[in-house]
Amino acid sequence: MAAISLSAIEKRFGETVAVHPIDLDIAQGEFFTLVGPSGCGKTTTLRMIAGLERPTSGTLTVKGREMFNGRTQRFVGPEQRGLAMVFQSYALWPHMTVAQNVAFGLAGRPKREVTERVGRALELVKIGDLGRRFPGELSGGQQQRVALARELVTEPEVLLMDEPLSNLDARLRIDMRAELKHLHRETGMTIVYVTHDQIEALTMATTVVVMRDGRIAQRGSPGDVYTHPANLFVAEFVGNLPYNVIPAKVESDGTVRGHGFAWPAGTVRAARRPGEVMVGLRPEALRLEDGAGLPLPVEIVSVLPAGSYTVVQAHLGAPDGARLYVQLGDVAGLEPGGRATLFVDPARVMLFDPVSGDALPTT
Amino acid sequence: MIRWFNRARHALRTPYVVLGAILVAALAYLVVMPFWEVLATSFQAQRSDLRRIPGAEVGDFTLYYWERMLNSPLTERSFLQPLFNTLTVSLLYTVLAMAIGVGLAWLTARTDMAYRRAIPDLILVPYVIPSWGIALAWITLFRSDTMPGHPAGVLQAFTGITVPTWVVFGPFPIIIVLAINYFAFTYLLAASAFASIDASLEDAGRLHGASRWRILRRITLPITLPALGSAFILTFSQGLGTFGVPAFLGMPDRYFVLATSLFFNINTGRIGDAFVLAIFIIGLASITIYINTLVLGRRRQFTTISGKGVRPLLTPLGRWRVPIGVGTIAFLLLIAAVPLVVLVMQTLTWRVGNFSLEHFTLHFWFGREMVGAQFQDRLAGIFYNPEIMRASWNSIRLGVIVGLVVALTGQLAGYVISRGRGGWIARILEQLTFLPFVIPSVVFGAIYLTLFAQPRGPIPALYGTFALLVVVSVVKRLPFAARSGTSSMMQVSGELEEAARMHRAGFLRILTRILFPLTRNGIFVGFIFGFVNTVKDLALVILLVTPLTNVLPALTYSYTERGFRQYSDAVTVLIVIIVLVGTFLARRISRTDFSRGF
Q1: CATH of residue A83
Q2: Measured between CB atoms, which of B4, B10, B502 is closest to A50?
Q3: What is the span of the domain harbouring residue A138?
């Protein structure tokens, strides 16, 4: 049984549709990430799961229990859903100490148990010595840990997180990602995680849902979403370096031909029907040395070393001036203005419909 | 059906909806309905006038009262003259208060005057004395035995100087005393306008080579003008229903304004006439407030509050820097000290008007009651006088209860208004909480006096009860409390509340553990405001008190009427003491109890 299930859940604010009817099944124990640019409806979706936002229509169940039903207008408030949530702002109560914040959800339990569990929760997030401080006296990273401890103390089965790391500096964010992933494995909680940062989504999630304009653009494993984006939006949204898109044409014999290159029929699996296409390539799908790859002659524009790897900017010499970004390990001999032939792993070539932007099927 | 049921159930579980509905219902009952009944009553024949309205039964529709007020031989004296007086007094005291308030605001915010940082605190000092207390002090200071029926005042006793009657009674002293009472109000409004100017706007002018005077004329003034206009209108609107000062300084001279005229009509049983006047006062106040929203509506395009801490351009006062600063502080201290000293001196004299040392006495503070023909008016001193002690207890009790209730109600209303923003409940509640602002205190008293004299629906007859005083005071103080509650609730992020809801906290727990602790500064301000103004308020309760529920301001009034000047002055001083002690204690308590945390 799915831990959380959304069926045709829709949210309108007056005339504007924040979330178009969407279906989502979140399995027990998943690290489920909703990712997308701001305004895509991911936070609204999370808040509907939490019960902080009332859907307009559809049905929503948590562990089989109906929380919202658009037909009967049955709605269960957040108090009664038994979910936990970490807010983007952390929402720590500034007038309570760290320990009081964490103990809030344990109201009514014996004092000894509260003290012990609060202590354990604070230890778990490595701030065991901060219990008597006030939130205002803590750093951003410490506040983040308090917010986490406050939710963990009640040992929830489902933890909702709304951009929890977005207010931390870059270094701390990397540490916290690892810790959250570790925590997920330790506790076996179901985590629903909202972020606009695709790296976070890729590094931590077991399942990623990319959202755009209130709709689901793609759902899949992080690897899937990265290597086989369902459409150009996902391809361009996910990934550190810009996605390479080259206009080309599939000819009647199956040859894929673009400016300066012609890849023989059968090498690109998606090339089945003749017509205009967009060739999509991840920057690291291109190599300098000749394997069994498809050749792509380019002119080098600039070479940008980034320590462990080097980014090379190139162009095909086509009139549209499209630039390619290539991530290479060894760049010996590449000079701006020089020419080179890059080689593409045919398995990593994606073709997209130039009108709809959808990926053409490879199977 | 089930849809409807579940929707309703959800609404009933949404705290701001339920709370909003309760508050709206309460205010509809306590403010809107009374207003309509006043309107209706003014068109209905009263028992006392049946003789004069041929063929009418009690409650029949009649234009008698409107005609009598607006189109009869009485119109000139009972309506037009008080209306003219009200407008004259309001206009002139507003001009004077603006001159002082705006001047002080400019000196403190925009010049390098010495000691200017002390002004914002000092300016509130005169505020502890009720406006009618200043009026009493004025009389005590300036009257002279050349006026029929009056003993010598402090001025005459010590210098021999006598002033003409018009200095002591009538429009002149009313205007001066009201200006003294309200300049702090105009100061606060003007100071925030001056402070909110983005200095870079002026700097831009300077870079273009404009002179200081040109910048003031072409940039600073136009930007602050809407705010200053609004300050003018708000101050003016407060004068329309003002009662205490014209009661003490105008009525002895038969100089009536609308509010005192209304009071006079109520006291002589002319309810119909009084209600026609009440409608006029409310109407005038509403019109001024409407004009105010028009003025402020334009102000939006001038909103210039910027986060940058750019220091505004301070005008150097040169060698006048220190003298002007000292003069300003002396002025503020004098305005607070002189009335108090005069009042205290009066309470220490055995016979009114005789300030010589052999007539010095502490009787009016600590004396026991004196019986015997020559001691007819020698009641016990205020600390041994059961009447005064009861009124003190009532005043303190009333102030504390009203302060608490109004502060919490204000926060709850603020919660509904801030959380339901955009929804109709919030909008209606915002309007309703503001409504008492345009109903002057004495009008409120008159309305409640008539309406709650008999049982209304489930509510028993409240006249003569302490509860009625509490209700009317809470309602009258609500506009301020709700505004301050709204602004403090706006500052509490919704996520703090949502986080608690995720932890299964019910609304009561959220309220007591999260919302109230976080807005305690707002609650505290609301309490102090409610307490101070309730303890000082004469106009609101003058018509509603009975010997058992009497409070200090009303007692002062009755002592003045009976000619017991030492008692009325002593009671006024007592009120000042209660206000000071109450404010001080509340500050202490709030510091010790709540100061943990941020």
Answers
A1: 3.40.50.300
A2: B502
A3: 4-236
